[in-house]
Amino acid sequence: MEAAYREAARQLAQQKRCVVLSGAGISAESGIPTFRSKGGLWEKYDPAVYASIEVFRKDPSKYWQIRGDFIRDYNRYQPNAAHRALVELEQAGIVRQIITQNIDGLHRKAGSRQVIEIHGSLREITCLQCGKQYLAPNVPDGTPPHCDCGGVLKPNTVLFGESLPPQALDSASREAQTCKTMLVIGTSAVVYPAAALPSLAKQHGARIIEVNIERAFPDADVVILEKATVAMTRLLEEIRTFIV
Ligand SMILES: [Zn+2]
To answer: pLDDT digit string (tens) for 148-171?
Structure first.
């Protein structure tokens, strides 16, 4: 593992132009409930009912009910050491872009500037009728909030049955094709299209560094099997020895 940190740090410090792909694993240590894993949100709630655009259009209360449960107190979640390490790497000119599958907004909250949220964000909601945007309120009782115009407000997250925002996808794919390193943190290779980004990067000459609890990317050149906060703190220390 020692050698893996050294190798990853050398790659990042020397090549720069790093694009990060992050998933639920980076936010798990901030206490964000997971969706797909064992004990995750989708074991309790069927996403085909509670997070589908089709159901939402007919009866938005299902979504707002789960949302009340999930983020009753969304603002209490704070970025952790892994999010903060990425802020420092961006400021050092090493990380150029973060592409995240997370909707929790913690990368931006930590202070990262270049963030593509390919599954959208919990932070804002949009009126389905007139398109007006609002900051998301806390809705602990599950009552769907309404716009001034009377329209129902929909989260700016991608629900099941909706396509991903094309602009975000285009940028993510462009970033993957032009980076020198793709640093994959806390994501398994199951949800497309994000799961395809490391291979795309690799095809275009990038090296892949994987930070995960369990290995998920056979294409990875350097693998660090560790929790995100521990791995990123350690990696940051190693990188500092190269850039001093
Ligand atoms: Zn409206």
So the answer is: 999 999 989 999 999 888 999 999
Q: In the beta sheet, which residues pair with residue 120? A: 157
Element (H or E) spanning 231, and its range? helix 228-243
Q: Which residues are catalytic?
A: 119
Give the pLDDT of residue 188.
85
* Whether the predicted model's global pTM rises above the 0.70 cut: yes
Residue 132 near residue 125, CB atoms below 8 Å:
no
| CATH top class, domain 1-31+78-119+164-244 | alpha beta
CA of 126 to the centre of ligand 1 (A): 8
CATH fold of the domain at 33-76+121-157: SIR2/SIRT2 'Small Domain' (3.30.1600)
Q: Which tokens sit at 94?
A: 């090493």
Give 152 Cα–ligand 1 centroid separation in angstroms: 7
